[in-house]
Amino acid sequence: MIILLLSIFLVLMILRVPIAISLAMSTIVVLMLSDFNMTMVPQRVFTALDSYPMMAIPGFVLAGVLLARGGISKYLIEALKTWVGHLPGGLSVVTILACMIFAAISGSSPATAAAIGSIMIPAMVNAGYDKKYSMGLVAAGGTLGILIPPSIPLIIYGITAEESIGKLFMAGVIPGLLLGGVLVSSAIFYAKRKGYGKGVKATWEERRRSSLKAIWGAFLPVLILGSIYSGVVTPTESAVIAVFYGIIVSAFIYRELHWKDVRPIIVESINITAMIFLIIGAASLFGLYLTNAQIPQEIGAWIAESNLNKWVFIIIVNILFFIMGMFLEAVSIILITLPILLPMLIHFDINLIHFAIIMTINMELGMITPPVGLNLFVVSGIAKEKLGKVVSGVIPFIALMIFVLIIVVIFPQLSLWLPEKMQ
Question: Where would you find the membrane-spanning parts of this chain (predicted)?
């Protein structure tokens, strides 16, 4: 039956049926052939979505869209330019730093790539940077959106694995800073080698003015993460705070949010949220089939009888994630694979919080690997270039991210040190 399910799923994917519909339809067909009580199907879908932590997803999605359209990303970039724009490869450094800050606001890779790329790709090209390199840099920098907290995939992981979302957020901080630092270092090295020029050095007065202007947006990550880790609010409540803060800053301080912008913002947020929730509902049906067929138990028994060790298992799983990332997006991969992998993780005594970061970095790679990397399509649309050119520009960054992944796998404390401090 599992072979039939996967066959139907792959055929529907090849026919370009949306992932959620493909997964739901293939699972329903197999459940019907298994004489399953089909009245449980809608019940399972609604149960999967009827979760308090799940409410954080539309909150952070709306906050990300709101802040991208409300001027916050623009003023952050202007402030960063005054501080580091005069350095070798200054604009590329600004791009990575802006992605890191916006990642700590939106929790979404495509949103980060879109918000920063729409401003920085034209600026870098006008300053003499190779367009292919500029597109690759933005696509790679945008992936930080799901590693640096808050992160929508980490929320999904926490709900599925029943782990603390606050600890998962904290676990992503050091690996996120590490990846950002590696990208910044590579940008400076590349700029020096290619002779990319420096920008005009800003005066201290210009730095002061731009920093004061941007401080409202830069304070939001502090507000979100500080309120969570201090225990004042839950991640779900912090998402609502982010929305209201974004409205106040965009509408009354920056005055770039107008009534005519409200409808497009709400429509875009609904579209993104609906896509995520539809995938969650479909994946819950897949999980229902796995439970009914006792597949996790069978896999766990097989591993217990096999001679696999922990490191061989981790290597196999990373390769599996890399391949799946070429065809599926992050939420789908987490919801499809995690219920199967959980018994194995427990068997090998792999820390679930550490594994969440390993999984998330793999999901980041999936964002920039063809043929279905979401960030590739976002950047292609922004830059009005063919997808192949974006792919060729992002290949060096894939190698850098694999290097960071290896470091995070080998040194678990990079992910676990901060969560352990919360205990």
Answer: 52-72, 84-105, 111-129, 136-156, 168-191, 212-232, 238-257, 269-291, 311-340, 394-418
